[in-house]
Structure prediction request, 532 residues.
Amino acid sequence: MKLERNLGSFRDPAGQIYEIDKRVIRIVKKSGAQRYNYLKSINIIEESIKKGFLIQTKDVTDEFKKINNDQNNFYYLEHDKLDYISYPYEWSFHQLKDAALHHLNFQLFLLERNCVLIDSSAFNIQFINNKPIFIDLLSLDKYVIGDYWKGHSQFLQQFLNPLLLKSLKGIDYNNWYKGNLDGIKTTDLNKLLSFKNKLSINILISVTLLSKLDNDNKINPQKALEKIENKKKLSKNSYKSILLQLKNWITKLKPKDEKTIWDDYSKLNTYKNEEQKIKLKLINEFSKKYRPNLLADIGCNDGMYSFESITAGAKKVIGFDIDLNSLNRAYLISKKNNLNFLPVYLDAMNPSTNLGWNEMERLGFNKRTIFDCMIALAFEHHLALANNVPVDEMVKWLLKIAPHGLIEFVDKEDETIKRMLALKGDIFPDYNIDNFEKNILLQAKIRNKTQISKTRVLYEFSKN
Amino acid sequence: MRRLILLIFVFFISNSNNAFAYLDPGTGSIILQAIIGAIAAGLTFFTNFWLKVKNFFKKIFKKKDNKK
Prediction:
């Protein structure tokens, strides 16, 4: 077994993440040893873990020094392995907001103990179900009196600006963020904001003034450097008040109130309650049978079927949906009830692909993990009929997600489908139950087939 | 105060040119932190001063109360 470097971990020369036998090991290099020794000496790692800020970490240097004698590797630290890695561009507003507040609270906690975070990458935060957790131990460093907040600009780009875009303009940041992994540039956001938006003193300082300074500095970089050299040091109190001011502001941010057609889906959909009951019963039986460690709920909406799976025995569910308002609601429900449920954004027609440096820094949807089980209810027709995906390709894509699953098929006679095809016309001769079933059988066995209404059938497939 | 903000604001709008990336974008952030920091430090000074004034008067009134 060999330690393999995680290809997304390369930015910090002081240490990187490796994987071996499903374990996550952080190697602290010679150049990071001093930083780590300091953190250890003031017991800040233990304290941060205890307070729920930092991911579980233990020193396994003795174990790994025996099998690896690279003199440049000073320490080996083992972190808890996360079941699912998600990225900021897949988080809904409340998730990004909670991640931002987690970062600021952690900074405030550290500053009291004479430590700081040396960067503000939103990718350093992950979600364990509904709780944000900081994962990059080597971002912690000693606070030196007079230091400026090095990650200030990055924090604004990766946390604040996307939140402002949604909060002030009602524009979802996710696809923009996916296109620019550094987040949303302050100068870009400034151009979008209206006069009324800029009347806020917070916006005026953190967006408009910063844009102005950035633009001026780009025109005259020498003058900018001279200005910085002549600046007084930043006092610890001022550092703290910058963090507090951002914290107070972000705490108050809310998404601009706009409902989408999916917003009341769980309440207003065209199913009858009887159908829902049958579906819940089948999901319950399915989850009891497999008791999956990780189940994917494709098209999770606000999570009703995910919750049923968890109740019946699924240890953890990752929910995927295209509708960010539903995801917001799903996340808030998960948080309120403390469920092992993480909802994230997925546009199945344009899923997250491999992104970043060397196209391997951030992994795509189907490269990240294979789930134990999957459910996809009232989902397939959105691919096949709304987006014209051929039935064979659609089935192949769904069956790739997990070896066992439940998929609902909706017939053309269904009222929802009739509405969908009302203007488009029926241009899909291959969309029928026989073809759907035939394509499942090409790759898997059908364990169960239940007619849940006149026009809907729920299939249970298994590849083993 | 409002008029001042408005003036500053108009100044920003009239000066928003396109610029090229010659410099690390963090430079603006440091200058900004120095400005906010100074305001924050000013506020802290003012708050402390105000607390001292309040305490001074409290003490006087307390002394008066004690005498009574």
Remarks:
- Helices of chain B lie at 2-14, 26-67.
- Chain B is about 80% helix and 0% strand.
